[in-house]
Amino acid sequence: MQKTGAKIAPRKGTKTLIIGKKKHVAENRVRRPAPGERKALRKRIVLSNVNALSVPDMQDIDGENMFDRTLEGKVLGLSNDLVDRLRAAEAFKSSQGWGLFSRPGTLMRRETLDMGNMIADMSVGDGTAKSVRKVLIGERGSGKSILLLQAMSMAMLKGWTVINLPEVQDITLGHTPYQPLPGSSPTQYIQPAYLSRLLRQIFMANPHLANIELSQSPGHWNIPIPIPSNISLTRLASLGASDPDVAHPIFTLLVSEILAPGRPPVFFGLDGLAHAMQPGTGYTAPNMKPIHPHDLMILNWYLSFMSGKDSLPNGGIVMAATSQSNAPQIPSLEVALSQLEGDRTTLAGQRVAKRERIPLMRYDERVLNALMHQNGNISVQRLAGLSKEEARGLMEYWARSGMVRERVSEGFVGEKWALSGGGVIGELERAVVGMRP
Length: 437
Prior knowledge:
The chain is α/β, with parallel strands linked by helices.
């Protein structure tokens, strides 16, 4: 018998309406990252570590000792002024382990001293403008980006003007505004926001531009803003850095002033060459086809100097580095670099012949012409591992910085040198510093 007032369970298969308070849903109180915050954190450059031991007697690199052969295998420090200029040029990378030590330092390997000797010879004002075009290749972790940074450092120490394209992928990825360049044939595309950022990088990395005044009439360059005739090059670059709409004409005028007769030599650097040799980019043309990287104005400008189509009146270096950790496979680039390098011999004594074209494979003639132009005279430098003496000097610096607890003996150096594939600097750091107890 059913009790009075008791609730009757609903019959199976029928719908019921439950009226009551909704369950409280806990709010997510975690702050979401602001736009660009994750990218800034990912690309943050840390150049010092207060917990690392300082090396008090570490000598700084300067214009006099950058080619001293007695310093081979030694680690030299970077002065604060040089660090600020290199940071402005975006020469440092987050994957290079700068934050493990009390201050930035760099190893003077044999290739570094050769580079310093070449820059010192080119800096002597003997009336001849010498130009060098070089591509750095090598396996992953061999120190290509570091050698590019060292070359920029030595060029800055000698008073050169340095313009660096730190990561080509940022140019070709397709995440910056772009527009056709009026009057260009074939059509070139400019990236005003990127050019504005590049102009800021130029005047911050080259403080000597503040002492150089404009020598040409700005009225011939169709710049839509008034520019004084006696303006300094630093002030000129800052105008383009603050207004992307005028960045392109100001960049063109600034480069013509930098290359004017009587100016200091120049250093044009680029990292991630393979991204500039792809068959297409993330940008599309009006016909909905991908834009070729060489049709982007900034890359076309750089490759015109790398190929030798445009000369360097005051001399200088045009240097590019390849990347093995983040690079597309470009057969045209591989064939061109192999042809420029020629036959070579590996560390094991095996002879590797240069690559020839495969008859049935399609190659990008624009890539081949950019690197194998008749006026280019591009040299290819392959970076291998460190010698045992250089590896020992680097490990002794790590030990003095508190990163190595073992005694740096001959056996320890030989073991780590062999484990790192013959002194490949990236693998050596991983084997010694990354695997410390």
